[in-house]
Each structure stands twice: as C-alpha cells, then as structure tokens.
Structure to design on (455 residues):
C-alpha cells in the first residue's frame, strides 16, 4: 500500500504544483486538455487515499488526457507565450515609439503657438461656445491685455450681431467668411473680420479662428481728406484772399506809401500766421487720428505737466490780467500715456479758458484722484479747468468738439483760434481711453473736465 501511495504522489503532486505555479505567474495559459489533466491529477491524489479499485480509472483518465495533448501539438505550441525577454523588448520599442510621437506633438504645439504669437494681425481662437481660448499679442494690444479672458473690448466684439451671424454660418456651413464691422466702443473702429471654422477641432477645443484687420487708419485718412476739402479749403480761402488783396494793393496804390506798406505787411503777417496755425493743427489732428487706435506707451506725471503748461501760458494770462489758482495732487501719473499729447490736452483746455474767460477774471485748475464712472471703478485722475467767463449756451455744448465749430466765429478768429483745439483734445483723450466733459452756465462760466487712467 505504501509504495502505491508514493507512486500516486509522484504522478500527481509534482506536475500539479508546477502547472499551478505556471498558471498563477501567467507564464502559461490554459491549453486544450489542460482541464482534464488537472482533474486527473487531483483524482490520483484522492484515489491514493481511497480505494485501490480506482487505480484503473486513474490510468485510463491519465491516458486520455495525454492523448488529447498529443492530438493537438500545433495548437499547444501556438498558444505558448513569448519569452520574458521578447516581451520586454517589445515594451521598450513601444515606449520609444510613444516618446517619439509625444516629442513630435510637442514640437508641433510649440510651432503652432509661435506662429500664432508672431502673426502681425490680431487673431482670436474660440471654442464652439464662443469662449476665447487664445489671443495673440496683436489681439491683446487691440482688445486689451485681458482679451484671452474675454475682457470688455473682446466681449463687445464677440457680441456684435454681424460677427455673431458670421460665426453661426461658418460653423453650420463649414467655410470661412469675411464681414465688415463698425465698433463704437471703447472708441470708434472700422474692422474687417475673417471667420475660419476648424474641422476637426484643435486639441484644446479650438473651433473658430477669427482674423481681425483694423481699417480705422484708412477710414481716418479718407475722413481727413474729405474734411480738408469741405472745411479746410473754406478756412484757408479767407486769409489767402486777404493776402492776395494786400499784395495787389502794395503793388499798386500803396507802392509809394511807406505807412500803408507797414500797416498792410502787419496784416499780411497775421493772416500768414493764421494759415500756418491752421495747417499745423490740421496735420496734428490727422496724425492723432491715425494713431488713435494704437494705445500709447510710457507715462505722464500730471502735476508736473500741469504746472509747466500754466507757467508757459503766464504771458497770455498777464495780457488779459487774469489770475490762476492751482490745486493739484502730487504723485498722480497717467499710464499708459504719451506725455507730449497729455501736455497738449492741458494746454488746449487752459488756453481756451484764457481766451474765452472774463478779462481780469479767475481760472482754477484742480487735479484729484477719481475712479472712472463707467462702473468698473478703474483708478484715474480728474483734471478740471474752470473759468468765470460768460459761459456757453446749452445747445452749443454737444458740438464743441466738432472740427471748425465755433460758438462765436468772429471772436474766435480774432483771438487766433482755428476751431480745431477741442477736436484735437477729444481725439487724444480717446486714444488714452479717457473721458472729456464740458459743463457751462451762461453768465457763470465753464468747466472742462478730463479724466485719464493712472494704470
């Protein structure tokens, strides 16, 4: 009996243990006949502890299992897994391939970002929900640094009904379209927008590409040309006619009259100076209009500039026997700002107060910190120039910043005004994203207020 038990354990226990370990470590998958072989091995152990009569059944079952394995040698060979070295080598090749693809995708992503960042025209990348995913530097300069976060300027652009229809059509029909837009805020712009659908979408969800072309400069040039023909020619005609008339007089009746010659030459010099001022103001206004849509750079110390302009106009104050009081807060710096243009604004406003205020009157200049009144609470500075002159009728106030508009044309020309000072002032303030307000009461005086952002 004992030899028989040892034989049963020798036949069943060792193969069963080896096969079990191989299957647990996944080095071997179940093969055809494997279940029968395992069953026979387990049965052999049971029989060794049971009746000797079952030994015959063990032999038959073991023979059948071995016969099944021999009958399918090809299937057993094909089902055998590759070696561990082969698997490791395959995994290494797969990892190298994935790393190369990842590096290629990263290079493509960097190239895409570099192209977008260096395009000279403003470009916005939008999701299907019209959210701004990316904005290049040109777009941030045009729409503000918060354009990628869909700031107020970008939101105003995307809410434009013409552009909204173009984006819907591009997504629905799958082809690009170009539309012309007029944007009234934060300052008037003429913009051409090309909407390009992206199919398939980009990895970051980009679905629409919007290319913006600012045509405001070209529109300003056209307006300047039309205004020059309509207005400047009329303004130049009068002094030019005076000059031609006096020249004819000097050649004829006054040719031998030294006193008349001196008087006429003095008038001619005044008319020539008037023409020079008019041409200078026209060129200055044209230049400012062409730069109006480009935010300024630099900063302007407001208190220092205000004092400098007040001192420069002291001779004009003395000529009219007027007094000037200054109440300026220190440390207020407009930024971003062009210091020369800010000085021109202060000079124009103060010169208007001197020319149109009451003789021997009082002019007050105040400079204080003040938040914007547009609901954003942006920090800024408020400069106010107040005179105690005759004031201006209310129906004139909305038109004071128009070109060549004068409340009293004869008086303005006599004082050397060109009718362009407040127009220039308005365009400079718009370029600086500021505000201009004019308040006046007849008989009590006028107050001109300029608000500028201080960064």
């Amino acid at each position: 009996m004992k030899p028989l038990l040892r034989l049963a354990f020798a036949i069943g226990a060792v193969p069963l243990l080896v096969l079990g370990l191989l299957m647990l470590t996944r080095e071997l998958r179940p093969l055809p006949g494997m279940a029968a072989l395992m069953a026979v091995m387990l049965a052999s152990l049971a029989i060794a502890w049971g009746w000797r009569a079952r030994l015959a059944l063990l032999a038959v079952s073991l023979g059948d299992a071995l016969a099944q394995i021999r009958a399918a040698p090809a299937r057993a060979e094909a089902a055998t897994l590759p070696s561990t070295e082969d698997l490791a080598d395959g995994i290494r090749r797969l990892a190298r391939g994935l790393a190369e693809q990842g590096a290629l995708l990263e290079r493509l992503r960097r190239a895409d970002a570099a192209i977008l960042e260096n395009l000279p025209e403003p470009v916005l990348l939008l999701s299907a929900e019209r959210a701004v995913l990316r904005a290049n530097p040109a777009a941030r300069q045009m729409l503000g640094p918060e354009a990628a976060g869909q700031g107020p300027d970008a939101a105003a652009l995307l809410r434009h009904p013409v552009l909204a229809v173009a984006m819907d059509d591009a997504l629905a029909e799958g082809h690009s379209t170009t539309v012309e837009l007029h944007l009234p805020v934060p300052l008037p712009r003429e913009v051409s927008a090309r909407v390009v659908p992206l199919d398939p979408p980009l990895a970051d969800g980009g679905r629409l590409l919007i290319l913006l072309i600012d045509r405001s400069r070209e529109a300003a040039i056209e307006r300047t040309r039309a205004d020059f023909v309509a207005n400047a020619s009329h303004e130049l005609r009068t002094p030019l006619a005076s000059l031609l008339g006096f020249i004819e007089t000097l050649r004829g009746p006054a040719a031998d009259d030294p006193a008349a010659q001196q008087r006429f030459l003095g008038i001619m010099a005044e008319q020539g100076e008037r023409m020079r001022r008019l041409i200078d103001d026209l060129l200055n206004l044209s230049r400012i209009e062409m730069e109006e849509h480009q935010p300024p750079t630099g900063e302007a110390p407001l208190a220092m500039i205000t004092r400098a302009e007040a001192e420069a106009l002291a001779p004009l104050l003395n000529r009219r026997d007027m007094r000037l009081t200054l109440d300026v807060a220190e440390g207020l710096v407009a930024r971003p700002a062009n210091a020369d243009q800010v000085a021109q604004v202060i000079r124009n406003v103060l010169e208007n107060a001197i020319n149109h205020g009451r003789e021997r009157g009082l002019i007050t200049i105040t400079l204080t910190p003040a938040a914007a009144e547009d609901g954003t609470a942006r920090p800024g500075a408020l400069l106010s120039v107040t005179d105690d002159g005759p004031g201006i009728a209310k129906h004139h106030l909305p038109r004071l910043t128009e070109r060549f508009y004068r409340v009293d044309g004869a008086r303005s020309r006599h004082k050397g005004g060109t009718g362009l000072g407040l127009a220039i002032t308005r365009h400079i303030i718009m370029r600086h994203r500021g505000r201009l307000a004019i308040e006046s009461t007849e008989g009590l005086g006028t107050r001109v207020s300029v608000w500028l952002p201080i960064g």
